Amino acid sequence: MSAARSRLRVPNEIRDPISGLNPDTKRRVRAALDAVIDDPETGMALSERLAGYRRIRIGGWRIVYREEGRVIQIHAIGRRSTVYADLIARIERARKGRQKRRAREETLERIAQGGSWSTYLPPARCETPLIAWSGDAVACRRAKSIDARST
User: Fold this and answer.
1) Confidence of residue 122 (pLDDT cuts 50, 70, 90)
2) What is the pLDDT of residues 50-79, one digit of tens each?
3) What is the DSSP string of the chain?
4) Number of domains present in the structure of the chain
5) Is residue 101, in this structure, part of any structural domain at all?
6) 26-30, 32-36, 88-92, 120-124: the lowest-pLDDT one
7) Are residues 69 and 15 in the same domain?
């Protein structure tokens, strides 16, 4: 058991559904969260795609969390039938988003270092050279003064 209590971090998208639970379930969720704060190893360790996470059972409900230093991060609270699949899908979306951001940053850095616009191949759905990114969406525009085949 930990000598000092850990801090608990519950994101709003997880906190909001808890407030809609019936009073008995809500009381049991709070008691389980208190137990996790007192001893983060209370829950069972998960494996495979959720390795590094732990879960605690509350009847048909599950709390999935991870200890990150002195902070216990709650990643999901939900019905046993859906909580794991939902969490895996959310993790995959976040991973893909990080990969896209990293690729975008690397491409912009190469271009800023003197790379040619024409050396970057646009995404398959674009028929024109890529000349700008707009937020998370790739903006494909026809290059007026750049001939992609020259240079």
Assistant:
1) low
2) 999 999 999 889 999 998 888 999 999 988
3) --SSPPEEE--HHHHHHHHTS-HHHHHHHHHHHHHHHH-TTSSEEP-GGGTT-EEEEETTEEEEEEEETTEEEEEEEEETTTHHHHHHHHHHHHHHHHHHHHHHHHHHHHHHTT--GGGSPPPTT-SS-EEEEETTEEEE---SS--TT--
4) 2
5) no
6) 120-124
7) yes
User: What is the model's pLDDT at position 140?
Assistant: 43
On whether the pTM is more than 0.70, the answer is no
Residue 108: inside a domain: no
With beta carbons less than 8 A apart as the criterion, state whether 66 and 59 touch: no
Query: Mean pLDDT across the stretch 111-129?
Result: 56
In a domain, 52, yes or no: yes
Domain ranges, residue 45 = 7-88
**For the chain, what is the radius of gyration of the CA atoms?**
23
- Is 134 contained in some domain? yes
Same domain? 17 vs 75: yes
Same domain, 79 and 17: yes
Q: Are 20 and 80 contained in the same domain?
A: yes
Rounded Cα gap, residues 51 and 64, in angstroms: 11
Contact 63, 77 (CB under 8 A): yes
